[in-house]
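Every protein is a chain of amino acids, and every chain bends into a shape of its own. The fold becomes a row of whole numbers, each drawn from a learned catalogue of backbone shapes. The protein below has been through that process, and both of its lines are reproduced in full.
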Amino acid sequence: MQEACAAAVAQWPRDGLPPNPRAWLIATAWHKAVDAMRRDALRADREVAALGLAMRAEPAVVADPGPAGAAVLAGDDELALIFACCHPALDPAVRVALTLRSVCGLSTSEVAAAFVVDERAMAQRLVRAKRKIRQAGIPLTVPGSTELAGRLGAVLRVVYLVFTEGHRASSGPELIRADLCEEAIRLARGLAALLPAEPEVSGLLALLLLTDARRPARTAADGLPILLADQDRTAWDQAKIAEGDALLTGALRAGRPGPYQLHAAIAACHSTAASAEATDWPQIAALYSELVRHEPTAVVAANQAVAVAMAGRPQHGLAMLDELTASGRLDRWPQLHIARAELLRRAGREAEALAAYRSALAAGPPATERAFIESRMAVVTPRRAPRDGVAGAE
């Protein structure tokens, strides 16, 4: 943006003021950002090598903020670019992945982790998407007010996955990336201001606030994760919990339930419980049963299994996790193996718990999570009683 302003100072006195100065600045800043990304030869080399292609420049995702779109989304340039990139001509999963990479700045490995797929496969998806944009001449313009609804689902997913990467970083030395958490909340607030009557928008903002409220208690002094059951609840941000709970209540009154409202209701069960023992696990299990109808993914099914186990049916929950493990669908998701190890440990099946922890390590978790897994493995012995709390429950 600084470079765009410098260009404006040099060009506008000479060439005259453009018809839409704001749009000119956004587009120019974006072009300059793309130029900077192109200079990042290391990442470009890895993505191209993944396809076995000769080195060549890939088309950039460039949003052209039209006057109508600029008026609708005035005040939030990044949100405007997210709407532009979530073009309906692209497959939903691809448009979300491309937006995370090209607009939100997540690396290819981070985008791959969000979708629980191999980085090479994700690099191929991204290059194919860029090729389709170029060959089909898809215009990535900021949509007008009548086009927002058709793109909202993908935009909500983008914001949710930005927060997810911040809440549990897939790489780097720290468990939490506060910058991404705060940026996702900012974007969700922008969406809520833009579409105040959409219950799923309010549900998403409620979810992010209720979850982020626990951030101060989620890591120990050495940076290792603290299980939800062991967290100091007095350190939770009560203002965020109250705001999130109020937003969720208002969203549910609309009578149009959706996945983000259900996610938020689950988060509220955790965040409003006075203690770990007071957590309403039967209610959480029931909410997951409904959520899996709206969002039938393996990750949701894994969390449902943990909730079922914690609600008093440990063998059934463990059987559900065993089935997911056998399917291989979440081999690259360490949380599945950690949750399964914790349940096996509670059942007194220490040898199997150690094997599950080893599977979690083989999934390539980041440094803090690896250290946490190793610390859990160190205390698994036949004579030691298992602690309460399941690591995958959060």
